[in-house]
């Protein structure tokens, strides 16, 4: 059974940086395309970025380019999201998700982790 | 970016009812559409992809249809366990985007 577990969230001051982690198990992580998606409190879902199985290709949503950086360590089955210059509007639950095995590189998310909450506040 | 619009935003229905949620795309996405179910306090779960293909393990009372710009998610006989918010999402190209969600309440 595939399991994705995010960590690294918490309360952070505006302007600071944070790195979120997503540890995967129950799958061949080095073959898996991975995504980050976030959800502000009481709001909808926002896709952030995707990384290929080997880390050679990344695509970021345009509005967060430059502040959001994704990376992975296939030897540790871990996927990362680095967020710099945090703003109040970055307050959200951040989910990692695996690309569905049915969809290739398309952007269909299955499964999702349980999420980690980032609160940006002074 | 492609905009996804769902209707209604909130839906109240009784157990056993047939429920339909509509999703419209701002331009044609052929059939590159997924539906997710998000129960309160939980992560979303994939229900349907490619507009009408049911994900493995999803009850058969869920179905999807449509192509181009108009899509529907139908629950044929509403169950209490279906209390959730439902999201459509296109994956025609990046950036993929979601509808704003439809909150389904059980009367």
Description:
The complex is a heterodimer of chains A (122) and B (107). Chain A is mainly β and 122 residues long. In chain A, 0% of the residues lie in helices and 50% in strands. Chain A is built from no helices and eleven strands. Chain A has strands at residues 3-7, 10-12, 18-25, 34-39, 45-51, 58-60, 68-73, 78-83, 92-99, 109-112, 116-120. In chain A, the strands form two sheets. In chain A, strands 2, 4, 5, 6, 9, 10 and 11 form a seven-stranded mixed β-sheet that branches. A four-stranded antiparallel β-sheet of chain A has the order 1-3-8-7, with no helix packed on it. In chain A, strand 5 and strand 6 (58-60) form a beta hairpin. The mean pLDDT of chain A is 95. Chain B has 107 residues and is mainly β. Chain B has no helices and eleven strands. Chain B has strands at residues 4-7, 10-13, 19-25, 33-38, 45-49, 53-54, 62-67, 70-75, 84-90, 97-98, 102-106. In chain B, the strands form two sheets. In chain B, strands 2, 4, 5, 6, 9, 10 and 11 form a seven-stranded mixed β-sheet that branches. Chain B is globular and about 35 Å long. The model of chain B has no long low-confidence stretch (mean pLDDT 97). Classes of the chains: A mainly beta (122), B mainly beta (107). Chains A and B meet through strand 5 and strand 10 of A and strand 5 and strand 10 of B.
